[in-house]
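stuck on this one:
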Amino acid sequence: MKKLFTALTIAISLTASAQKSEVIAVDSATKADLYSKSMEWVAKTWSKANEVVQSKDPEAGVIIVKGGLASKPKSLGMPVAGMTYTTVTIRVKDGKAKIDFEDTFFRHSMGTVNFTDKSADTCIYKKWKAAVDEEQIGMIADLKLALTKKLEDF
């Protein structure tokens, strides 16, 4: 019984912490404006945006992207070339946008590192997870900049 309870607790904690998200406030911006700027950001972030956009609904204000970005986290001091794959959901409404990252993993020539698996407690896993977290923080900052840029800033 104790083992069952422990396994259940671990399973719940794995699913509860599997994503990163942030709300971006943009005062006086309309839903349509934020949606348009978000689509422009997606097009600039992924070179083949038409292939990675899984769903776009201007009325609901939702964009879902499943795609990868070239990534080179370090392993034992050396960069490991690969791709970070993630599902990015952007939801917009008047004055706010929310970006969520889910199902994130890193694929390289030797295999795949799934970042929803908290049991992977190795040094390399931690370094790669930190690199992917940094990449996501950069993407959030880029989206925030794209959403807050005014026409006169161009």
Remarks:
- Strands lie at 20-25, 53-57, 62-71, 74-75, 78-79, 82-93, 96-108, 111-114.
- The radius of gyration is 18 Å.
- The longest helix spans residues 123-148.
- DSSP finds four helices and eight strands in the chain.
